[in-house]
């Protein structure tokens, strides 16, 4: 993927920046470590490392600030929830460092992911989330398709976007 930039931020494949795997994993750990089975930072490092593909999902993009640090990240995996394996690929692990939120980092990450997916031949993306993050995806062109209750989870909002159209 060509490097996508905006003032003071660059979006790159994490596969091209393996030096930022642990840093991005720490951002994810701080955001979601309260989930059972995900309390150990090493779980996040291992998961983030597994999601550093290049040609096909799983793939992860990292937002890099002017100092070379990770400001955020976003991933794409073939299946997020086995119960929803008839859909995919799935946007996962979207996180922005707290001091960078509200500055367009998340939108720039998602734009980079959509561009890569389109170039890869992917026609539709899916995301599952709850609460306020659903508004972010709707603002970025996704539309809600379902509300789903999966075992051991809060109610999830399922959203999708058709790439290359205004769906």
UniProtKB/TrEMBL annotation:
Boundaries of every N-acetyltransferase domain copy: 11-164
SUPFAM superfamilies membership: Acyl-CoA N-acyltransferases (Nat)
Domain of life: Bacteria
Record GO terms (molecular function): acetyl-CoA binding; N-acetyltransferase activity
One Pfam match: Acetyltransf_1
Record InterPro entries: Acyl_CoA_acyltransferase, GNAT_dom, NAA80
Gene Ontology CC annotation, any one: cytoplasm
PANTHER family tied to this protein: N-ACETYLTRANSFERASE 6, N-ALPHA-ACETYLTRANSFERASE 80
Protein name: N-acetyltransferase domain-containing protein
Species in which this protein is naturally found: Actinoplanes utahensis
């Amino acid at each position: 993927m060509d490097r996508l930039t905006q003032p003071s931020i660059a979006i790159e494949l994490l596969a091209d920046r393996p030096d930022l795997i642990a840093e991005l994993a720490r951002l994810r750990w701080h955001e979601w470590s309260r989930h059972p089975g995900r309390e150990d930072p090493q779980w996040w490092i291992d998961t983030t490392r597994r999601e550093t593909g290049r040609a096909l999902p799983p793939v992860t993009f990292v937002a890099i600030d002017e100092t070379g640090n990770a400001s955020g990240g976003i991933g794409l995996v073939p299946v997020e929830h086995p119960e929803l394996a008839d859909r995919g690929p799935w946007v996962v692990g979207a996180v922005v460092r707290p001091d960078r939120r509200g500055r367009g980092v998340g939108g720039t990450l998602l734009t980079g992911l959509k561009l890569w997916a389109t170039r890869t031949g992917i026609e539709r993306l899916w995301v599952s989330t709850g609460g306020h993050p659903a508004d972010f995806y709707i603002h970025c062109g996704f539309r809600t398709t379902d509300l789903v209750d999966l075992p051991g989870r809060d109610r999830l909002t399922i959203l999708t976007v058709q790439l290359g159209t205004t769906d």
